[in-house]
Every structure is written in structure tokens, then in C-alpha cells.
Amino acid sequence: MNTDDKGIAQLLGGLPETPTASDYRIVAQKLLPYIHAHVPFMGEGHSLARLSFLTTIARHDLGLARLIEGHLDATQILREAQCPAGKDMLYAIWASGGPADTSQITQSDVTGRSTELNGSKPFCSGSDIVDRALVYIYPSEQIIEINLRTIDAGKRLVFDGGLWKSNAFSETHTWTVTFNDLPITQADYVGEPTWYFERPGFCLGALAPAACWAGGAIALVDSVRERTLKDGHAKAHLGAMAASAHSMQLMLKWGAEQIDADPTNQSGSMFPVALLVRHHIERGCTEILDRFGRTLGPRPFAFEADNARRIAELNLYIRQCHAERDLEELGAYLEEHSGFSP
Ligand SMILES: Cc1cc2nc3c(=O)[nH]c(=O)nc-3n(C[C@H](O)[C@H](O)[C@H](O)COP(=O)(O)OP(=O)(O)OC[C@H]3O[C@@H](n4cnc5c(N)ncnc54)[C@H](O)[C@@H]3O)c2cc1C
């Protein structure tokens, strides 16, 4: 699959320059049959096609990519857990933790037979856009599937958009969701406790955000290439940006090959592989963001709606990497595994 794919191009062409949440929902819904028919799962021999699909979407629009990335992650998790995924349903995965996450499973009666979801979850992308969400509950170490289209959900979920202060990704509605006594049953449980973080697929999913970051950065390179560059400095920056974009794509290809060769992580090296790829791509995006500004000055930041938004969103999106915390983990792994040779 590549950016020339007519099917995707046509679907993405329906997205306005400044999409609203409703535009995102419409286009994401229209992409679902395409995904179902053409986008393979990770670790099944064609991982690169899944990552390239995300890069293609992100090259067009980072907000849409953020939503589609969540959908692909959630449906991959359901497949690995052998749980059916609704074919026409747009999914999200809400697994963010930290002090703002107070979500927990509580017993609603003394018999302990009925359970409910309570508390708040930050960083819920697509909160009132998606149909279903997989929610990770840290105290129980459990993934729960919730259906946002039920009457119960309508009454017992509160979406707080006021906490999100940035214009970047504002229309993805990455809001804080509060659950008020939302009834849940055993049928809503996905996998066993602790399964979510321990499953091999967790490493495979880690490459998907990087594929989106790369797409956002490549779009900035596209934008430079569309212009007539007046001086040698600009051309030098373009050369360096194109080199970065190329190596990001090669890193994704390498990561996908590693995953396809060892989808169940028998080697135990899939997480360091993902950390390595993510680091490289985060650095490549940072370089492109920097060089883009040095090439074109302030005008695109101030006067070009698409680039102003893309730059703000890419800057925010790459902060999803855990920076030196990830590098420390990678370094510790390398120290203990002298045989690991990327
Ligand atoms: C655009 C966007 C959309 C997202 N959508 C989703 C989603 O749909 N689902 C989902 O599960 N997650 C989503 N996330 C969240 C993501 O998964 C992480 O939870 C988020 O990036 C924060 O990661 P972290 O808590 O591990 O912080 P890290 O980056 O690992 O660490 C941040 C560090 O800074 C410290 N810190 C932060 N603030 C302060 C402060 N005020 N004072 C002192 N120390 C501080 C923290 O304690 C921590 O040590 C999204 C993130 C972004 C950027």
C-alpha cells in the first residue's frame, strides 16, 4: 500500500483542511471497510503494510491518524484476546495512567456479584467520537470493553473537554472521561488480569504511534518540496530532511521485519526493537521540525493553517515517547544482553 492508493486518497480527500470532530467521525467510519479489507494485523507477515497505512493517514492528517491508530490498536488487542470486534464499530484504547487516572472497578452490592466502573481516565482520544473503547484499569490490571452507544453509557459517562488547553488535536476530543457507576459484567473483560502489558502484542503496538509521527514529519518534507527554494541553505535543509524521512521509513520496515520474524516475542527482544525504532523516529521528527522552521522561517507557522496545525500536533504527538526513560530501559537491556545486535 502506498500514498497513491486511490481508495484511501478518495476517502481522505473528504476531510476538510480544518476538520471538526464530526468530520473525523465521518471519515473514520468510511475508512472502516477499507481497513477491514486491506489492512493486515501486526505480526502476521505483513506488519509493514499496517504501519505504512498509518503513515499514509498521518501524512494527510495527524488528528485522523491518532484516532485510527487507537482503532487499530484496540482491534489488534481484541484479536489477540480472541474477542470479536464489531465490524462497523470505531474503537479506542484508553490506557493512560498517572495521578489523574482514578478509574477502578467497584462492587455495587454486598454480594460482590455486580460490578461497576467508577473514577476518571485522562487522555481518552475520540472520547465522544468512537463507538467502543477498551479501558485499562490499573488497580485490577484489567482491560474492560465499554460500549459508548448504550443508554447506560449516555447516562453514566461524563466527558470533560475543558482540561485540554491546546489547539493541537483539539478535535480528536482527547478528553478526560469520568465513569459514574457504569455497570460492567464478566463479558466486558478482555483477557486475564495483567495480560494487557504482558502479551507479546504490546511491543508490536508500540511501533504504531511512531509510524504516525513519521507520517506527520514526511508531510512537512512534502510541503517544502512543493515550493521553489531560493537559496542553498534551504536546499541543504531539504536534502537533510529527505534523508531523515527516508531513514525513518527504513526503520519502520526493519521493525516490521523483526516483528514478523518473531511475533510471539520468543527472543524477548521485541520491546528493545520497538524502543530503538521509536527513538530514531522521534529524533528524525525533531530534526525535521527544526529544519522546516530554519528553511521557511515563521510564515508557515503563522499563515498556513495546515502546516501550523501539523507542526503543533507533531510537536505534541512525539511527546508520547518516554524520552530518556525509554533510552534508559533500552540501555539497561543492551547491558544485560550482549548478544542483541540491531
Ligand atoms: C495527543 C495525545 C493523545 C493521546 N491519546 C491517548 C489515548 O487515546 N489513549 C491512551 O491510553 N493514551 C493516550 N495518550 C497518553 C499517552 O499514552 C500517555 O499516557 C501520555 O503521553 C503520558 O505519558 P506518561 O504518563 O507515561 O508520561 P511520560 O512521558 O513517561 O513521563 C512524563 C514525566 O513527567 C513527569 N511530570 C509530568 N508533569 C509533571 C509536573 N507537573 N511536575 C512534575 N513532574 C511532572 C511525570 O511524573 C513523568 O515522570 C495520548 C497522548 C497524546 C500526547
Keywords for this entry:
alpha+beta; Butyryl-CoA Dehydrogenase, subunit A, domain 2; 2 domains; four-stranded mixed β-sheet; four-stranded antiparallel β-sheet; 13 helices; 53% helix; binds flavin-adenine dinucleotide
What would you note in describing this structure?
With 342 residues, this protein is an alpha+beta fold. Helices cover 53% and strands 13% of the residues. A four-stranded mixed sheet has the order 1-4-5-8, covered by helices on one side. A four-stranded antiparallel sheet has the order 2-3-7-6. Strand 4 and strand 5 form a beta hairpin. The radius of gyration is 20 Å and the shape is globular. The two termini are 26 Å apart. The model has no long low-confidence stretch (mean pLDDT 95). It binds flavin-adenine dinucleotide. The site of flavin-adenine dinucleotide has 19 residues, from helix 4, strand 1, strand 3 and helix 12.
- Strand tally is 8
Name of the CATH class of the largest domain: Mainly Alpha
Radius of gyration: 20 Å
Bound ligands: flavin-adenine dinucleotide
**Can you summarize the main beta sheet?**
4 strands, mixed
Please identify, by name, the CATH architecture of the largest domain: Up-down Bundle
pLDDT average, as an integer? 95
